[in-house]
Amino acid sequence: MADIVLIRHGETDSNLKGIWQCGDDVPLNSHGMEQAREFGRNAESLSIEALYSSDMTRAMQTAMEISRISGIPYLGMVSEFRERGCGDISGLDYYGIVEKYGIHLTSILSPDLDGIPGSEPLSAFRKRVLKGLSDISGNSSLNRIGVVTHGGVMAYVNSMALGVDVLERFQNCSFFTIRRENGNFRKIDR
Fold it and tell me: Which of 55, 69, 146, 171 lies in the 20 to 30 Å Cα band around 83?
């Protein structure tokens, strides 16, 4: 079974403005491209043998730039690693959400998001991400695979791997590694 290094995509203009981009397919900005290049320059220390990404532009651009700089092969997209769909709040900032829906959303993992029209239910999001992790870790002859994904995916996997309901925010192009043991994923130091 392969270890999985989860990597958050580089910065977008929406990240800078505090806009919930969720399922919106927005590209990296110039700083996000530089973050991906920097990750690529330092990727050798992580021993990643191949890269995948979600099927969203910001994740694909990050993965392809890491691959170009580091030489790690980019194997393609896995839709299970896309960000949680948040329906009608996509494109709004915190205050726009409060104004339109009267709720104070601070996390894409909030169950309150289930009540937003067009949003992906939290249970479906969790099931989808877990399927992607299981498929990638169990169907590979590689030892370590990188997956460029999104903040909500990383927050969910981090909480699941630690076995506690904790919300951690991940900076653009930050990462952590998980390993599957006895059917469960856990965080590892390397």
Answer: 69
Give the HSE-up count for residue 110: Cα atoms under 13 Å, Cβ half-sphere: 12
* Matching residue, tokens 């653009």: 172
Q: Residue 183's CB: how many other CB atoms inside 10 A?
A: 6
Q: Which of 65, 83, 120, 150 is catalytic?
A: 83
- Which residues lie closer than 8 Å to 163 by C-beta, 6 or more apart? none
* Alpha-carbon gap, residue 157 to 18, rounded angstroms: 22
| pTM of the predicted model as reported, rounded to 2 decimal places | 0.95
Chain-centroid distance of CA 20 in Å reads 14
Q: What are the structural domains of the chain?
A: 3-188 (3.40.50.1240)
Is 9 among the catalytic positions? yes
- CA distances (Å), 31 to each of 9, 79, 83, 106, in order? 11, 25, 21, 24
d(CA 147, CA 19): 23
Cβ atoms of 9 and 32 closer than 8 Å: yes
pLDDT for residue 182 is more than 80: yes
Q: How far apart are CA 78 and CA 56, in angstroms?
A: 9
Set 9, 11, 65, 150: catalytic member: 9
